[in-house]
Structures are given as structure tokens and as C-alpha cells.
């Protein structure tokens, strides 16, 4: 019995210390993950890299350790899973962490992934419950259906429809009464030349007023390999439209090019861009909004920017801004503009199509301005192993 008690105590001690060690690993791993991985990975959704929920079950701890240490080495070895991930995410190389993270650090990160994956189902259930509560909340009022309109509106619609129907009936009756009274006079050339005669002919099925008369006269000396040309009138509708285009062209030229009372395309474009800028300026979440931030130069702001850069940006741009997955930030070339306002917008809104995640909501405006200013302070530092220039020189 004593031996059984001792064994039970020993097993309990091992379980307790093992659980404590796992928890401690996960806590430390969360800090490492947020400082090095969170910019490109999420647990539940693909960002720059794949979602990591339950990745340890799909790949195994040993594979994860190798991939985090040096993903390119694993890809070059021909590992099918590594190659598949590389191909799926547009061949964007993941930085090798074997030089910056120890084996224990990587194990801590894997422990955190396991803990976060286990916690994800509970979060999903909570989200589903929240969604159900929202679904039970009355929706905003929709447009009123026609049948739900007040009776007076139905009466007005019915009255208008009845009046239109009566007008049509009266016109048809007048047409049926008057036409027989006119007799043979409808065929007189004088009547057919009038507007009323043309309308009558068109309503009677005679489309001459639209197509013109077919003279069936062959042009003399117009014989091309047995193909002959008839001297028929052009359709009146075509001729009238042609005359209208001539009048329109003259008016257009006078309006835009002689009197210059109208704005040409270039001027309209400038006016619309100015209007768009005014509208965008009222919405701080619009990427086109005009900003006029100044570069921060005081030591405290730059030190804060450096700290934020190391924590959030170094994983993709290098510790010294030399560029790894992302571009080199120390040269004179920029993909999205090298002014502090351009860099601020790139940091804030990101470039999702190229793997640059947006940082709005994660960093405050002041923090994004500090990071942008720190990035500009890296200009001309020429760090070792700098990535080749990308973009345009500024």
C-alpha cells in the first residue's frame, strides 16, 4: 500500500509539473509568436501565411520545428508539405528563425499553437452564440411593399391607370371612326406627304416613311463582276440622324473649342479628383484621404518606432531593414512611395495582394507614425545582405 501511495504521489507530481511546464511554455511561446509570427499568421484565417489552428496535428512537432527553423532548406529538400505551402502562398519565403530563435523558443511557439488551437473551438461556440443573439435582434426596417401602402396611394395609382386606358380607347375609336370617313382621300399624294398621312401609313403597315421608296432603277455603268447597284433612296431615319450629328458636331465644337464654355476631359478629371479628395478627407479610413504628417525626429519617438519595428516588422523586412520577405527599406527605391505620408498609409492599410498586412486596429495612429519615421531614419544605412532594390527611386 505504501508503495502504491508513493507511485500515485509521484505520478501526480509528474502530471502537475508537466502541466505547469506546458503552461509556462505556452505563455512564453505566445510572447515569441506575437513578436515574430503574428504579422504573417493567424490561428483561424490565412493571412500572409497559412492559418495555424491544429497544424501540429496535420504536420507533427518535428516538421514544424524544421519549417520554423529554415523553411527554405525544407523546401529544397523536396518535402511535399513544405513545397505545397510554398506554392499555395505565391512562393513567398518564410524567414529562417534558426539564427534568432533557440530550439527552446521554437518549442515554446509550438506549445502556444497547441494551446491556442485547443481554445479555438470554445471561441467558435461563443461567436456562434453571439451571432444567434444578433440574429434574434429585430432587423432594420426594409422598404415598404406596394400592398402595404396606404389605400389612398392605391386609389391614385388606379385612377392614373384608368385615365391612361381611357385615353388609349378614345384614340383608337377616333382612328376607327375618322379613317373610314376619309375614304379615298387617304391615298391622295398630298395627304400622304403630310405628317398625319405619314403617321397613318406607318400605323397601316406601310414603312416607306422609315425605309424610303424603292425605285428599282439600276445605275448606268455600275456593273462590277455582275453585281449591280440600285438607285434607291437612303432611309429617311438614317438621313435625319446624319443631319442631327452634323448639327451636334457644330454645337460641340463651338461649346468646347471655340467659346470654351464646357470643360474638356482633362479639366473634368481634375475637378472630379479635387471633389474626391475633399470627400476622402472627411473619412480617415479612406486610403485616398489626404494626410499631412511630418516626420518625427526626436529620439524618444524614433526609439519607440524602433521597438515597434523590431516587434512587428523585422520578421518580413529584417532586423536592420535589409529586406527578407518584404522589400529593402534602407535604399532610395520605394514600391508605394517614400514620403512619410505614403509609408504611413502603407503601414495602416497594408498591401494584401503582396502580403503586407494592414496594421490599423493593431497600432495607434501615433505608433504608425513613429514606425514610419523610424523607417525613414534607416535611409542610407547600407546593412549587410541587403535585398536588391525594388520600385522607383525617390
TrEMBL record:
Membrane-spanning parts: 155-179, 240-259
Domain named Cytochrome c: residues: 24-117, 300-379
GO terms for MF: electron transfer activity; heme binding; iron ion binding
Keywords: Electron transport, Heme, Iron, Membrane, Metal-binding, Signal, Transmembrane, Transmembrane helix, Transport
Matching InterPro entries: CcoP_N (IPR032858), CcoP_N_sf (IPR038414), Cyt_c-like_dom (IPR009056), Cyt_c-like_dom_sf (IPR036909), Cyt_C_IC (IPR008168), Cytochrome_c_Oxidase_Subunit (IPR050597)
Pfam families: Cytochrom_C, Cytochrome_CBB3, FixP_N
Signal sequence, start to end: 1-23
PANTHER family given in the database record: CBB3-TYPE CYTOCHROME C OXIDASE SUBUNIT FIXP
Record-given protein name: Cytochrome c oxidase cbb3-type subunit 3
Lineage, broadest ranks: Bacteria, Pseudomonadati, Bacteroidota, Cytophagia, Cytophagales
Amino acid at each position: 500500500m505504501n508503495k502504491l501511495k508513493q507511485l500515485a504521489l509521484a505520478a501526480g507530481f509528474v502530471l502537475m509539473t508537466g502541466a505547469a511546464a506546458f503552461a509556462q511554455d505556452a505563455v512564453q511561446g505566445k510572447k515569441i509568436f506575437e513578436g515574430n509570427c503574428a504579422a504573417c499568421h493567424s490561428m483561424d484565417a490565412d493571412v500572409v501565411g497559412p492559418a495555424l489552428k491544429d497544424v501540429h496535428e496535420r504536420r507533427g512537432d518535428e516538421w514544424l520545428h524544421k519549417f520554423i527553423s529554415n523553411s527554405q532548406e525544407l523546401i529544397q529538400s523536396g518535402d511535399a508539405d513544405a513545397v505545397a505551402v510554398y506554392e499555395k502562398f505565391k512562393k513567398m519565403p518564410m524567414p529562417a528563425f534558426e539564427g534568432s530563435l533557440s530550439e527552446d523558443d521554437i518549442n515554446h511557439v509550438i506549445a502556444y499553437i497547441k494551446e491556442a488551437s485547443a481554445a479555438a473551438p470554445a471561441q467558435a461556440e461563443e461567436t456562434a452564440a453571439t451571432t444567434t443573439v444578433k440574429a434574434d435582434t429585430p432587423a432594420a426596417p426594409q422598404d415598404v411593399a406596394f400592398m402595404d401602402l396606404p389605400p389612398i396611394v392605391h386609389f391614385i395609382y388606379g385612377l392614373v391607370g384608368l385615365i391612361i386606358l381611357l385615353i388609349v380607347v378614345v384614340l383608337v375609336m377616333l382612328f376607327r371612326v375618322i379613317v373610314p370617313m376619309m375614304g379615298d382621300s387617304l391615298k391622295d399624294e398630298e395627304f400622304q406627304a403630310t405628317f398625319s398621312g405619314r403617321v397613318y401609313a406607318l400605323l397601316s403597315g406601310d414603312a416607306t416613311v422609315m425605309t424610303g421608296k424603292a425605285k428599282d432603277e439600276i445605275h448606268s455603268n455600275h456593273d462590277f463582276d455582275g453585281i449591280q447597284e440600285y438607285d434607291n433612296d437612303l432611309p429617311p431615319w438614317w438621313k435625319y440622324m446624319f443631319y442631327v450629328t452634323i448639327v451636334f458636331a457644330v454645337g460641340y465644337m463651338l461649346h468646347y473649342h471655340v467659346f470654351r464654355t464646357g470643360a474638356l476631359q482633362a479639366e473634368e478629371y481634375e475637378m472630379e479628383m479635387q471633389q474626391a479628395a475633399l470627400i476622402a478627407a472627411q473619412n480617415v479610413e479612406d486610403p485616398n484621404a489626404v494626410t499631412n504628417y511630418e516626420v518625427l525626429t526626436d529620439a524618444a519617438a524614433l526609439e519607440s518606432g524602433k521597438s515597434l519595428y523590431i516587434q512587428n516588422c523585422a520578421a518580413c523586412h529584417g532586423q536592420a531593414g535589409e529586406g527578407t520577405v518584404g522589400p529593402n527599406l534602407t535604399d532610395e527605391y520605394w514600391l508605394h512611395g517614400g514620403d512619410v505620408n505614403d509609408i504611413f498609409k502603407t503601414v495602416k492599410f497594408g498591401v494584401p495582394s503582396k502580403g503586407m498586412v494592414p496594421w490599423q486596429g493593431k497600432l495607434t495612429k501615433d505608433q504608425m507614425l513613429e514606425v514610419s519615421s523610424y523607417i525613414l531614419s534607416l535611409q542610407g544605412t547600407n546593412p549587410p545582405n541587403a535585398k536588391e532594390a525594388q520600385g522607383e527611386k525617390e
